Amino acid sequence: MFAVWELPGLYGWSGPTVDMDVDEEETRQKMSQELTDVLDAEAAGSVRTHVVHGNAVDVLLRAAEGAEVLVVGSRGRGGFARALLGSVSQHVSQHASCPVVIVRSPKQ
Q1: How many Å from the N-terminal Cα to the C-terminal Cα in the chain?
Q2: Per-residue pLDDT tens for 46-75?
Q3: Secondary structure (H, E, C), 94-105
Q4: What gap in Å lies between CA 15 and CA 97, rounded to an integer?
Q5: 3-class secondary structure for the chain?
């Protein structure tokens, strides 16, 4: 499982001084909590996770190279809360080198 994080609006240029370790640790904690919420704590512990700093589309497309399938959520933090697809899931579904499964949350 991958969690990708970057500072909003900073992709492609040098941003202000920030504590990158704090953002990475927060991402790790959120991913761990989400896994525990979806699975139980024991099953969540068996999932291999990766926290990657970068652009989500770029990271996921690289991860999809040689994969049998790429599974992504239907939307993230974009401005259109009711959109069926977020920009990341839409982009990877069109450009991945393997089949893509898009999972929509029951809350949407």
Answers
A1: 22
A2: 988 888 888 889 999 999 999 999 998 876
A3: HHCCCCEEEECC
A4: 32
A5: CEEEECCCCCCCCCCCCCCHHHHHHHHHHHHHHHHHHHCCHHHHCCCCCEEEECCHHHHHHHHHCCCCCEEEECCCCCCCCCCCCCHHHHHHHHHCCCCEEEECCCCC
